């Protein structure tokens, strides 16, 4: 299991301006002036997190819990600074309360990037069950969400969704599917 | 416990004393329930934000405001039970060291609003010791009202985050915040200069 936890796809280990998924996400954040990026780590998100830390445009840091990160970017939005939260599927599963009691009723354009675990080769039963709770929770609050599977659609979906979140003052979840990121596999 | 020689104060009184000290449009985040009720009762200000849920997130929301507006002092009022739900936020704040964030913990040792069930802060857990252990070196119990005011003044001219813990009585909040989340957010954004009034 420890070895499996280390496995990432080869395409996840590239730089930020080379057309990789994480390079596109970083550039799209920047272009939309999203400079505050708290996260709870996920193996697949590692190259994105690393490059965010390396870029002085971004204030990026780990929080102890995902809802804490949602509170931080919500406060920042009200103070005039844009943010986005990075998490994995199990992190999203901790958010129903803060979505329903803060982001949605206060009309805060909360931008979430969710690395999708639990599907397309998941090896951990718990992760696959947690994953099944994600879209029903999003749908129960009528929240905008997109599952991104293709590199050629990533920039369009991410850029348009961020702009829509801001202009309609509504949260959005961008789910980064293993077809896009390579996901995490059990190769042993 | 050495901290228990602090005076038992009152949330509304302490909140009113804090508000009276604010002369520079400082932001104030009121946590779930009583902390925002007493913030409301102390007199609405455009720079006040009132939480209607999201228990434990007063400090994270205040941290976000502090990171967005580093030249504005940002206060957050949180109950002991709420803080115990989100202790990780203390170490996040200690890591980021925002120079403009001041945290106030109203410690009555109970979940007052849900029926006054005891919290661990009543017996075993020391909020200030937890904060210091989380990396917030500038954390202190207020001995009495005058000490509270002194600690607030010191924090307002400091260059590091401060946490002030206050032992309070078991009284409920004295006001009831108008529960209109969009209005609360919009007025707060006006108060912070982010939006123009309509
Ligand atoms: C996640 C969550 N769990 C439980 C509740 C119910 N609840 C609302 S306020 C509260 C107690 C808050 O205690 P504290 O922060 O100490 O404030 P006090 O009531 O003592 O002023 C609880 C348990 C809630 N709103 N959200
Ligand atoms: Mg309490």
UniProtKB/TrEMBL annotation, chain A:
InterPro entries recorded: THDP-binding, TPP_dependent_decarboxylase
Any one GO molecular-function label of the UniProt entry: carboxy-lyase activity
Top-level taxon: Bacteria
Keywords: Decarboxylase, Lyase
Name this polypeptide is given: Decarboxylase
TrEMBL record, chain B:
Keyword Lyase carried by entry: yes
Domain Thiamine pyrophosphate enzyme TPP-binding: 38-166
Keyword annotations of the record: Decarboxylase, Lyase, Membrane, Thiamine pyrophosphate, Transmembrane, Transmembrane helix
Transmembrane region(s): 49-68
Pfam families: TPP_enzyme_C
GO biological process: small molecule metabolic process
Residue ranges the record marks as coiled coil: none
Domain of life: Bacteria
Record carries keyword Lyase: yes
InterPro entries linked: Sulfopyruvate_deCO2ase_bsu, THDP-binding, TPP-bd_CS, TPP_dependent_decarboxylase, TPP_enzyme_TPP-bd
GO molecular function list: carboxy-lyase activity; magnesium ion binding; thiamine pyrophosphate binding
Protein name stated in the entry: Thiamine pyrophosphate enzyme TPP-binding domain-containing protein
Source species of the chain: Bradyrhizobium nanningense
């Amino acid at each position: 299991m420890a070895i499996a936890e280390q496995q990432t796809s080869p395409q996840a280990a590239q730089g930020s301006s080379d057309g990789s998924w994480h390079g596109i996400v970083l550039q799209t954040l920047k272009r939309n002036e999203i400079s505050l990026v708290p996260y709870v780590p996920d193996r697949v998100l590692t190259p994105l997190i690393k490059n965010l830390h390396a870029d002085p445009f971004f204030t990026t840091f780990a929080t102890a819990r995902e809802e804490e990160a949602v509170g931080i970017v919500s406060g920042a939005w009200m103070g005039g600074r844009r943010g986005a939260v990075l998490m994995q599927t199990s992190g999203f599963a901790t958010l129903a309360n803060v979505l329903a009691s803060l982001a949605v009723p206060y009309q805060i354009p909360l931008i979430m990037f969710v690395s999708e675990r639990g599907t397309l080769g998941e090896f951990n039963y718990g992760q696959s069950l947690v994953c099944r709770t994600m879209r029903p929770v999003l749908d129960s609050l009528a929240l905008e969400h997109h599952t991104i599977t293709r590199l050629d659609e990533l920039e369009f979906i991410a850029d348009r969704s961020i702009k829509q979140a801001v202009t309609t003052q509504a949260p959005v979840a961008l789910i980064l599917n293993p077809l896009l990121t390579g996901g995490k596999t059990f190769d042993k | 416990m050495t901290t228990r020689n602090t005076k038992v104060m009152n949330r509304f009184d302490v909140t009113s004393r804090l508000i009276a000290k604010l002369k520079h449009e400082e932001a104030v985040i009121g946590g779930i329930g009583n902390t925002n009720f007493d913030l409301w009762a102390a007199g609405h200000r455009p720079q006040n934000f009132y939480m209607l849920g999201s228990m434990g997130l007063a400090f994270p929301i205040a941290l976000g405001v502090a990171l967005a507006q580093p030249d504005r002092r940002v206060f957050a009022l949180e109950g002991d039970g709420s803080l115990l739900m989100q202790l990780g936020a203390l170490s996040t704040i200690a890591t980021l060291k925002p120079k403009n964030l001041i945290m106030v913990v109203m410690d009555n040792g109970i979940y007052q609003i849900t029926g006054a069930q005891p919290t661990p802060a009543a017996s075993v857990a020391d909020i200030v010791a937890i904060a210091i252990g989380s990396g917030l070196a500038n954390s202190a119990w207020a001995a009495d009202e005058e000490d509270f005011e002194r600690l607030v003044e010191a924090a307002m001219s400091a260059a590091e985050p401060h946490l002030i813990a206050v032992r309070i009585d078991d009284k409920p909040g004295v006001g009831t915040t108008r529960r209109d989340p969009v209005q609360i957010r919009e007025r707060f954004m006006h108060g912070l200069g982010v939006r123009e009034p309509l």
